[in-house]
Amino acid sequence: MVEIQGSMPRNPKQIRAEQDAAVKSSLDKIKNKIIVMSGKGGVGKTSTSVNLSIALSKKGHRVGLMDVDLHGPDVPRMLGLEGLPELNQNRKLRPMNYSDNLKAISIEAFTPSKDEAIIWRGPLKFSAIRQFIADVDWGDLDFLVIDSPPGTGDEPLTVAQNITDAKAVIVTTPQEVALADVRKSINFCKTVKMEIFGLVENMSGFSCPHCNEMIELFGSGGGERTAKQMGIQFLGSIPFDPNVVACGDSGACYQEAHTDSAVTRAYAAVADKLSQLIK
Amino acid sequence: MVEIQGSMPRNPKQIRAEQDAAVKSSLDKIKNKIIVMSGKGGVGKTSTSVNLSIALSKKGHRVGLMDVDLHGPDVPRMLGLEGLPELNQNRKLRPMNYSDNLKAISIEAFTPSKDEAIIWRGPLKFSAIRQFIADVDWGDLDFLVIDSPPGTGDEPLTVAQNITDAKAVIVTTPQEVALADVRKSINFCKTVKMEIFGLVENMSGFSCPHCNEMIELFGSGGGERTAKQMGIQFLGSIPFDPNVVACGDSGACYQEAHTDSAVTRAYAAVADKLSQLIK
User: CB neighbours (10 Å) of residue B242?
Assistant: First the structure.
């Protein structure tokens, strides 16, 4: 385990204890922490984090969205958020308001220029993510949705170790090559003893905008089958829609622009399942 | 920099020097080393590595395909290769034959069960990848195609540091969120002084199998625009084709099953550009 290095003036154990207390105090006021994970990149994990957060907030829940994906912190672009978060009177970061019920913050604010290649070696990732979790003041929330980096390496491990009561929502696409990675994610959660809330199958079928025929871009049904095999809840299928890509690129809100699309309805259905966590 | 730990009986410097020599002797007989990289996962990096290798081998080049993607070593599944590689008389790993001109080896053989979650912390990745590169006996090759893990972290850094004359082929999809990550990959190559051969845009346009109309799933043209902006060669656009996904899942050879498809032609055109490296 990597600690903050001894070149600092204070005792590393003391710093660690203070950070532990800061993490706890930030997280204590949040009823449910949901880590959105994926075994591999490119399955629409961030898009799912963003759209689930919006769907939950539209149901009246107070939602925070925390982006800890060091290698590709895409949440600000997708939500159209610009600028830097401010500090409150306790020198904690204040998340930025997307709407009355949804605030968000991204580790992007702590990384150099967007196009810069940061070569994050393992120990650096651990302390960057940990410090980021400790330094954000969320206030009272019903849900904190955490957009975690893909894979089963240092980053999701750090998140799991620091947000110990988090539940995982695993995102996949239907093809077998992706599902192999999902099984790794599920086993990762078991190894680190993180509860799995369920599995979402993204990019699941596609209706041609010209002829309306259904096309299975990446196959279909693999997510539901894998959930059953691995004994976890299947939360639903989100169809592919090129408008999700376009809205994500421009920072427009897909669910406002497409209030009654199949994708909007699918995210609302997943949000309903998450709402059952609120007693 | 992480060295092999001192609990081993021999001098770490000596082990390191022996490994350096082994890496060099394996790589000396290979004319061109091509690292296939991507800024993010899910853009079809492995699919591109596999299909480019096949396209190069069909042009008569002797090709090796090395899969060092620790988190998702998908090359064996995509090539339909099973079993473990054998050792030669010098106790080096012998790559497996896919065809007369194409052999391949994957780090998968060195990882535990496919579905197991390996929590690869940075230093472990470094030594695993390095050892793997040192231990493979490729023989004489025109091209070694290296399927590297996505991102700009420990893994591509390790590859770049150990295969110093490698040239990068960067794979992206057309949407802006992916292109932001590509710019990071390009800057990563500049930082580690790895020459960039060019950029491939994958999943670029899609012809509906029902009505044949073109659909831009992830937008289009972003790869070519980014290549121009960043001053690197644009190698071509590969259309999306659900058959690539299906073949990748089943281990069938896409280019044999679809000899005259737009995708097969597009990979052949990229292979032509790579062939110019052979004087």
Answer: 16
